[in-house]
Design brief:
With 99 residues, the protein is mostly helical. It has helices at residues 3-21, 25-32, 36-50, 52-86, 92-98. Helix content is 85%, strand content 0%. The longest helix is centred in the last third of the chain and has 35 residues, at 52-86. 17% of the residues are buried.
Length: 99
Amino acid sequence: MSKKQELDDRCVKIGEYVADTGCTVREAAKEFDISKSTVHKDLTERLPKVKPQIANDAARRLLSNKRERHLRGGEATKRKWQELTSRGKAPAWVYLKNA
């Protein structure tokens, strides 16, 4: 199998995975053991040339994730700080501010 065919196959697999699961670029990168940059390039540049319909489905999922990421980020930061303060491991200024 040629290198181009391998790339095309990988793009299709990633595109189908993202479209089916709705995962983030980071989650897809972890699943396929490649970088986030590679996932993004595969989905936005390579896949539309190989399988446009799958590319459209994956692009819709990525756009949805992009719209929601500020919510996930805020929740993660909130959990992080709650965990740190509950264990007494937060920076001193946090405790001074709340005193």
